[in-house]
Amino acid sequence: MMNSTKSFTSILIVLLLIFLASCSKLRKSWTKEGYVGKSFPRLAIVVINPDPVERKSFQDLVISSFAASEIQVVTDAVLFIYEEVSDSVIDRRVADLRLDGILTVGLITSDENQFISPENYNKFSKFYSHRFTGLNTPQYLAKSSTYVMEGVLHDLTEVHEIVWRGEMALLDPKNASAKKRFLNRMTKELVEEGLIKSTKSPRSSS
């Protein structure tokens, strides 16, 4: 009887560990085939949100999470886009800032819950224009919708590519704790899988 109790307890512990592990991951993520990750000396965080308070809160959380893993972001570029502008203006700003990576974070509605095809949105400016325009369409945050928090990593070092995308479902788009949970899971996945590496690593210090 005692052995069976111990076995049952052991099974419960294993199941609990599996459950906790699954709770610490994003619902869905995609990595470009063959992409092994790198350090981005000039990585910008762009939160696609028209609310300045919300945007600043998101940016601070992402920057803090990355700082714990010795991953720096370009702080003078964090607020460089937060309005609807032309693709050419965005391209010029990215070039002027000499960015080699951009991580976008934003809220999308469930009817857009599909990976954005790289051949259509590999250019960051085109991706951003699409997302920002969608965010500002009427009824975007209608109560009848369900929502997804999305993170997308753009590698700008050689050719402009979307190399990673992750998402997590949200029942309430204004739920602060859920948003924070997504940001923590997103940065953890990017760091643990080596998709964004520390700029202080031996390989990147020169």
Task: Explain what this protein looks like in three dimensions.
With 206 residues, the protein is an alpha/beta fold. It has one domain: Rossmann fold (3-Layer(aba) Sandwich), CATH 3.40.50. The chain has helices at 2-23, 52-67, 87-96, 118-121, 124-135, 176-192; strands at 28-31, 38-39, 43-48, 101-109, 147-155, 161-170, 196-197. The longest helix has 22 residues, at 2-23. Residues 11-23 and 201-206 have low confidence and may be disordered.
Provide a short characterization of the protein structure.
Helices cover 39% and strands 20% of the residues. It has 206 residues and is an alpha/beta fold.
Helix vs. strand class: alpha/beta
Number of strands: 7
What is the count of DSSP helices, taking H or I runs of 4+ residues? Answer: 6
What is the CATH-assigned architecture?
3-Layer(aba) Sandwich
The overall pLDDT average reads: 76
CATH topology: Rossmann fold
Strand-residue proportion: 15-25%
